[in-house]
Every structure is written in structure tokens, then in C-alpha cells.
Design brief:
Chain lengths: 402, 465
């Protein structure tokens, strides 16, 4: 039985591919057994652009994880991202037959299907239908209607959908290895599972996962998902900006960003410079710290402002009691929480996985939030119902295809 | 340094030095003077002048003058320039006595208070009457010291501009930028003092040091010509392996330099490179080449170099220049002066008109005749060097009277004279063919009509370098 508790999260990110092996405890806690990762190639903005290369990288990461955790990996939960992912809230409605007034599981499935009866672009497929609230005979805020009496069952869902073929690409990449794909999960949704506590979800919280290629966000209010999405701008853009602004190679720019970068302006002495060392150790170019920080600041400021404008399209941003939680690799940039605080005018924190034990170095690194979140997500799905609840249709869809 | 000066015995023509006096006035001036003396200064006398006996007593200057024995009775001027002025008038004879026999007088003072704002311009006037060339080093108060002080300082600065041959003005607010935010306030003031000290010493050295290519007072005046403008000053010294580069970088780092950016707009830049006997031609070449990147093509570079045995392995660079004032209240002449400059070789053409005007001014004129003849006879390159005092009065054109000195030079960048601005921008224009860099081959991210793959600073047209 022990092995069935093993769950593996795979995130194919723009900058790195990481595989987290975790174990679910009966008390709901999760323990991280091992983390395998490789720098990612063939992925841009969260989507695979070079299939062969990406597959090789995924394979390396999986092997790495197997070695480190001493576990044979057969099936994984995969996170997806990409600007094609879209979301909306919709209400489904079913009327119970005349001769029955007790709501059962079938009705729940029906109402979910009904909620999906909206027009999404033809090439798109549903990724998640996340339940928000049920309404039974006009009674609001019902959490579990099974067994309740009523003729009319309505349900609000948060629906995330994306371009079918692009999601398939990710799945195929894993299946070619060959590994089984248990489920496909939107990255930010996974991150939120470990970054936020249930209490914070109730209070209302926004999780922004700024990774290498994309900025994924998900907004919780009243304990449920209200808004989510993905903006295809991430750390790569910052690196690219630095590379072009300072005229240095990408690799050097990336290193500079990680080692010296900050998005705080006016915090350095006038004329303070950073000496770039040549590969051979010779003193190379001198770079003004303020210039570097200005480039980073402008990009992140724009990025966060875009997110804010998107979120403001709906009223939920005003219901964030717990504030903003920034995670993902870019959250390691110095001062990003202050910048977010300034832009959103509410408290912002840099967050990493909170509810996991085991490899602390991995748990406390916001770069792994999504992969660890996948395990938490898997655990929630497995314990919640004997079988998976979310993404079920999807799973069928793809298992049928292969 | 001081010890060195006592026992050095190089075959330099000691008697050839121009007699220079450094006169500091008021509390801030005395602080700066102490710093100058402590840092070590050769070939110049120092005089401390103040109304406040206590601060005079604690000064390290060998020669002290107390102002207004009866007006202030040994106390300070209490922040009242009028009182400071009266005190100076009362002690005019003592001051004259102290200033006698100086070819050049450097006045250091902090503007804004009573003695600095009131007495200093008067003393500058006495110095001019005594036939000296006067260079004023003035600090403007920190913004937090209040508007009243700021206004007093600006009035005094305007008077200085009329009287002195050249004014080098330091804004304390800018000095503050140099100091780490966490440093104590004393450090901020100390930085201002050491800035003044550094500039006084480097200018004294500049003039006194026998040069291979000599820089004279005329060059200095020419560099500081666009008056009422912002003075750019940078000094750097290094003895590292890459000393030419390091010294220049250090000089450009000076807060009055704005990291070398300002140089792009200067019409004339004075550069002196000094070093020990080991200084090589290639070092100077490298240094000047690097500097050349910071200045405009049309900029006239007044170059000087000197070899001084006492420099040892060190190499020092002094950069002095000035920009026209950026305030709208500036009469256009200043701009004309600057922009027309590059085209017509030297400035002397204008000096005729200028000196006519100065003739109207009472004090400086009598000096003119005698001054040039004896002031610079020391140097070999006489013809050029004798010119300066003649040109000096040009600076005293009455126009400054209209001007309230520019408070915030930092804003310069946004609205400096047009042509130069264009020139600076062209560098950005290179980018214009929009590039997406790494994302060239991936699907563009277009949000709200903007291609987010293009660096933000390019789209927002923000100059980052």
C-alpha cells in the first residue's frame, strides 16, 4: 500500500524541468522524498517548442529524481502553463425528475456537465472545472448537496480551458518516455495548494507564480477559486531585457539577474558598479547597479500592472483578506514583494510550499512550489474521492487517444 | 602629506609658485578649511575668517581674522546675512591685510547662514579690489535646512557670480547622495567638506604644478565659462595596475559629474592628468580615449599634463567643466554662448564685448592692467596664459543679476539645449529596429496591443544607459 501513496509531480518549466517525488501521509501531510531537475531546453513561455529536446530533458529529470529518491517512477502528475489557458466562471443547472427529490452523485456530475455547456473555441478543451458553490432550490452556499432534498440543483464552477493540441503536446512528451500521466493540472492551481493554507483561501488570497516563461495567477476568495490565468511573461523576459540593455550574453545576464538583481530602485549608491568577470577571470565590463535594477524594475512593474488590470476586470480583487503570495523562481528577486505591495496596494509575501515535510531545501525553495503543489493536489484528489474528481474527463480523453 | 612637503627637495622652482591664499569664511567654510589643511596642502596659505570666536579658536588655520568685534562681539551672525555683512565691513581693514600679496584667492564658504552669505561676497569684493583673482567654492544648504536658508544662499550665490572670477558651487543635497543612506549625518557633512577640500587641492595643484602641457588659470576660467551653470568637477587618483582607467572611473563617479553623463553637454572640458615619472604616454592616450567617449565631438578639451616626482606611482585625473544653467530664467545669451562655442575656436572674440561691460563695474577693472603681466609670467607658454585675466572679466557680465541660481541641476537631463539632447538620444535609436531577442522565434505575447517580448524599457522609451 505504501507505493500507492507515492505521488510524483512533473513540471516542464521554461527554465527548468523538475520532478518531485512525494509521499502522502494518512494525516494529510506530505513528505518530499526526492527532487530531480535539469535545466530546460526546448521550452519557451511554458510551452514545448522543440519536442525532441524537451523530451530528453524530461527524461534526464526523471532519471535524476529516481536516483535521488530511490523510487521507480511510473506515473506522474503534470503541470501545464501557457498563454492559451483561459478561465471563466459559469453556473450549471439541473432539474431533478418529478419522482425524486434527493440529490445524488449523478446529479452532481450532470450539473458539472451542464456548467460546461458553454461555447469555448473549437480547438479548446476543458482542463479543470472547479466547484465553487452549490445552490439547492435557491439556497446559497451549499458545500455538499448529496442527500439534500430539492428539485433544482445549481452549481457555480470555475472553468479553465486551453488549446487541446498544446496540452496534448505536453502529455505526449511524457507518454513517449514512457510514463503514465495521471492528470494534467494548471500550474498555479498546483502551487496554490501548498502556498496557501485553507484559512488563507477563506480570507481571500492571490497567488502569483512567476516562473521562467510565464506568470500564472490564481485568486481565491471565500475559499474557492474565482479567477485564474496565465501571462506569458516571466523571468526569461527579464534576462532578455538585461541581455539587450547591457549588451551581454544571455547566460551572463541570467547569472547577473540571479546574483545581483533587485527590483528596488534608488537603493544603491550613485555610480555603484558591478564588475563582470570574464570566463577567464579577467575583469570585464563594468555595469551600473542602478541600470540593472531599472531594467528589472520596469519589466516586473509592467508585468504586475498587467496582472492587476486583468484581475480588476472582475470584482474579486477587492476581497483579498490574506493578500498576495508570490512564488516561482522570480520571487527570489530581491524586493519583488515590496513592488507587488506598491502596485496592488495590499500586503504581498514571497511564499514557498508551507505544508510539506522532508527535503527542506526543496520545500523552502519557491522554484519548486508548483511541483510540490502537484503532489498536494494529487493527494487531495485521491483522498477526496476514491477516484479522481478534477480532470477526469480529460484523463479519459487522452487515455482513449493513445 | 604634510611631512612630505617639508622634506621634499626636488629641483622645482619653488619661487615660481603663484601666491595663492585659501580663505574660508563662516562655520561651514572653517570646517572645510580644517579638512583641507588636514588632508595636506602645499604651496598655499590659509586664512580663517569668522564672526564666531569659538569656532575660530578651534580652527587649525595659522592665520585667523575675527569679524565684527563690536557688531557681533565674538558671537556668530545668527543666520542673518545683514549682520554678517556689517561685521565684515567693520573688519574690512583686517581682511585687506590678510588678503594682501595673494595672486589668487580661493574663498570657501557655506552659503545660507549669516557669515557665509553676508560677509563672504563682501570679502570676495575686497579681494578683487586688492587685485587678486577670486575663485569661490560655495556649498548650498541641504533642502531640509529650510527655504529661508535656501533663499539666502541663492542671493549670496548670485552676488558671488557677479564678483568672483569663477564660482564652483556644491549642492549639499547632492553630496548626500554620495553617502550611504545609513551613514550618520556627520558623515554627510564630512563628505561635503572633503569634496571641497579635494577640489581646492586639485585646483591648487593644477595651477601650481609645473606641467609638460601646462594648465593655467585661463584654461580654468575657460572651462568654467558658462557661468551660473552647473559646475562639473571630478577628481580621481589611482596607483593600481590599471591606474589610468581606475583614476578616470573614479573621477567620473564624482557626484558633481553625474557619472560622466553631463560631460556630453559641456562645451569645454578641462582635463589634467598628473603622475609620477613612471607615467607613460600610452596611459595618457588610453585615458583620453576613454574620456573621449563621454564628451561630445565638438567639445573643446583643454588638456594638461604634469609629471610630479611626489606622485610616486599614483596617477591623478582632474576634470573640470560647466554646463549652462537649466532654469528657464536664464537669459538666452548663456545658451548662445554655449552652443555657438564649438564652432568658433576660442572665446576671446566675445571677451571684448564682455570686458567693455565689466569696465562699468567698479571693482575689478583696476586690477586688469597689472594682473596679467605678473600673474603668470612663470610659465613658458606665456602668450596663451597671459590672456586669462583679460578674459576673466567676461565672466562678470552683469547678466547674472537676473538669475536666481539653479536649484536642481539634476533635472538637467530632461530639458537641456536641444541639439545636444538629440545627440545623446541617438544611441538609443540604434535599437529602434525592434528586437525580441530570445523570443525571436516563439509566438509573440501581445497584450493590450503591446508586444511584451520587446524589453519594457525600449517600449516605454526609457533610457537605461
Amino acid at each position: 500500500m505504501a507505493s500507492s501513496n507515492l505521488m510524483i509531480g512533473l513540471e516542464i518549466g521554461t527554465s527548468k524541468i523538475c520532478v518531485v517525488v512525494g509521499e502522502g501521509r494518512p494525516d494529510g501531510a506530505i513528505k518530499i522524498l526526492g527532487v530531480g531537475q535539469t535545466p530546460s531546453r526546448g521550452v519557451r513561455k511554458g510551452e514545448i517548442v522543440d519536442f525532441e529536446t524537451a523530451m530528453k530533458c524530461v527524461h534526464e529529470a526523471v532519471v535524476d529524481a529516481e536516483q535521488k529518491s530511490d523510487v521507480m517512477i511510473r506515473s506522474v502528475y503534470v503541470a501545464v502553463a501557457g498563454s492559451h489557458l483561459q478561465s471563466f466562471n459559469n453556473r450549471g443547472c439541473v432539474m431533478l425528475p418529478e419522482d425524486r427529490d434527493e440529490i445524488d452523485e449523478q446529479d452532481i456530475e450532470d450539473v458539472k456537465i451542464s456548467a460546461r455547456e458553454v461555447s469555448i473555441p473549437a480547438q479548446n478543451a476543458f482542463l479543470h472545472s472547479i466547484i465553487q458553490h452549490y445552490h439547492v432550490e435557491g439556497q446559497d452556499g451549499v458545500l455538499n448537496p448529496i442527500g439534500m432534498l430539492g428539485q433544482k440543483l445549481e452549481a457555480d464552477f470555475h472553468i479553465i480551458h486551453g488549446v487541446r493540441t498544446r496540452i496534448q503536446n505536453t502529455i505526449r512528451c511524457v507518454k513517449e518516455l514512457p510514463l503514465d500521466v495521471e492528470d494534467v493540472v494548471f500550474g498555479a492551481l498546483a502551487s496554490a495548494q501548498v502556498v496557501l493554507t485553507p484559512h488563507q483561501k477563506d480570507l481571500g488570497a492571490l497567488v502569483i507564480d512567476i516562473g521562467g516563461g510565464t506568470s500564472d495567477y490564481i485568486l481565491y476568495a471565500d475559499g474557492v477559486v474565482k479567477q485564474s490565468g496565465c501571462l506569458a511573461v516571466g523571468g526569461d523576459h527579464i534576462t532578455n531585457d538585461i541581455s539587450m540593455g547591457l549588451r551581454i550574453p544571455m547566460a551572463r545576464a541570467e547569472k547577473l539577474k540571479i546574483e545581483e538583481g533587485s527590483c528596488v530602485l534608488g537603493n544603491c549608491l550613485p555610480g555603484e558598479t558591478i564588475l563582470l568577470k570574464d570566463d577567464s577571470g579577467f575583469a570585464g565590463k563594468e555595469i551600473e547597479r542602478e541600470t540593472l535594477n531599472t531594467i528589472i524594475h520596469l519589466r516586473l512593474q509592467e508585468n504586475l500592472e498587467l496582472l492587476k488590470r486583468r484581475l480588476e476586470e472582475e470584482p474579486f480583487i477587492n476581497y483579498l483578506g490574506a493578500g498576495i503570495f508570490i512564488t516561482g523562481g522570480c520571487s527570489l528577486l530581491n524586493g519583488i514583494d515590496h513592488l507587488a505591495q506598491e502596485i496592488f496596494e495590499m500586503p504581498a509575501h514571497v511564499a514557498h510550499a508551507q505544508t510539506a515535510s522532508g527535503l527542506t531545501s526543496a520545500v523552502e525553495n519557491p522554484q519548486f512550489s508548483t511541483a510540490i503543489g502537484l503532489i498536494k493536489y494529487a493527494q487531495a484528489v485521491q483522498t477526496d474521492r476514491p477516484r479522481r474528481r478534477f480532470g477526469r474527463i480529460f484523463g479519459k480523453l487522452f487515455s482513449g487517444m493513445r | 602629506m604634510i611631512q612630505l612637503s617639508k622634506n621634499y627637495s626636488l629641483p622645482e622652482r619653488q619661487e615660481g609658485f603663484i601666491p595663492i591664499k585659501i580663505v574660508s569664511i563662516g562655520g561651514a567654510g572653517l570646517n572645510a578649511l580644517d579638512r583641507i589643511v588636514l588632508d595636506g596642502l602645499e604651496r598655499a596659505d590659509v586664512v580663517a575668517i569668522n564672526t564666531d570666536v569659538q569656532s575660530l579658536a578651534s580652527s587649525v588655520a595659522p592665520h585667523k581674522v575675527q569679524l565684527g568685534r563690536s557688531v557681533t562681539r565674538g558671537l556668530g551672525a545668527g543666520g542673518d546675512p545683514e549682520l554678517g555683512y556689517q561685521a565684515a565691513v567693520e573688519s574690512a581693514d583686517e581682511i585687506r591685510e590678510a588678503l594682501v600679496d595673494a595672486r589668487m584667492i580661493f574663498i570657501c564658504t557655506g552659503l545660507g547662514g549669516g557669515t557665509g552669505s553676508g560677509a563672504a561676497p563682501y570679502i570676495a569684493q575686497l579681494a578683487r579690489e586688492a587685485g587678486s583673482l577670486v575663485v569661490a567654492f560655495a556649498t548650498l544648504p541641504f533642502a531640509f535646512e529650510g527655504k529661508r536658508r535656501g533663499a539666502q544662499a541663492r542671493d549670496a550665490l548670485a552676488r558671488f557670480n557677479e564678483i568672483a572670477n569663477a564660482v564652483i558651487c556644491f549642492e549639499n543635497d547632492q553630496m548626500g547622495d554620495m553617502v550611504a543612506p545609513k551613514a550618520g549625518i556627520h558623515q554627510a557633512f564630512a563628505t561635503a567638506d572633503s569634496m571641497i577640500s579635494q577640489s581646492v587641492r586639485s585646483i591648487v595643484n593644477l595651477i601650481q604644478r609645473p606641467g609638460l602641457i601646462r594648465i593655467g588659470f585661463d584654461d580654468l576660467l575657460a572651462a568654467l565659462r558658462s557661468r551660473n551653470g552647473r559646475c562639473l568637477f571630478g577628481f580621481g587618483e589611482s596607483d593600481s595596475d590599471n591606474r589610468a582607467h581606475d583614476a578616470l572611473a573614479q573621477a567620473l563617479k564624482n557626484p558633481l559629474m553625474d557619472r560622466g553623463r553631463m560631460l556630453a553637454d559641456a562645451a569645454r572640458v578641462l582635463v589634467q592628468v598628473a603622475g609620477g615619472p613612471g607615467m607613460t604616454l600610452s596611459e595618457v592616450e588610453i585615458l583620453m580615449q576613454e574620456l573621449g567617449r563621454h564628451v561630445n565631438e565638438q567639445t573643446q578639451i583643454l588638456f594638461g599634463t604634469a609629471v610630479d616626482g611626489r606622485m610616486g606611482d599614483r596617477l591623478s585625473v582632474t576634470i573640470i567643466s560647466s554646463l549652462a544653467a537649466d532654469e528657464d530664467s536664464i537669459p538666452e545669451q548663456v545658451y548662445r554662448d554655449q552652443s555657438s562655442m564649438p564652432a568658433m575656436p576660442p572665446v576671446w572674440g566675445q571677451s571684448e564685448g564682455g570686458s567693455l561691460k565689466t569696465d562699468i563695474e567698479s571693482e575689478p577693472t583696476p586690477v586688469e592692467g597689472s594682473q596679467p603681466a605678473e600673474a603668470i609670467p612663470i610659465d613658458e607658454s606665456a602668450p596663451v596664459d597671459t590672456a586669462p585675466p583679460l578674459t576673466a572679466p567676461v565672466l562678470n557680465k552683469p547678466e547674472p543679476r537676473l538669475i536666481t541660481p539653479q536649484p536642481k541641476p539634476a533635472r538637467m537631463k530632461e530639458e537641456k539645449p536641444s541639439e545636444k539632447n538629440v545627440q545623446a538620444k541617438q544611441e538609443v535609436l540604434q535599437f529602434e529596429p525592434v528586437t525580441r531577442g530570445r523570443f525571436e522565434k516563439s509566438e509573440p505575447t501581445i497584450v493590450e496591443g503591446e508586444d511584451l517580448d520587446v524589453p519594457t524599457y525600449l517600449r516605454k522609451n526609457i533610457k537605461v544607459k
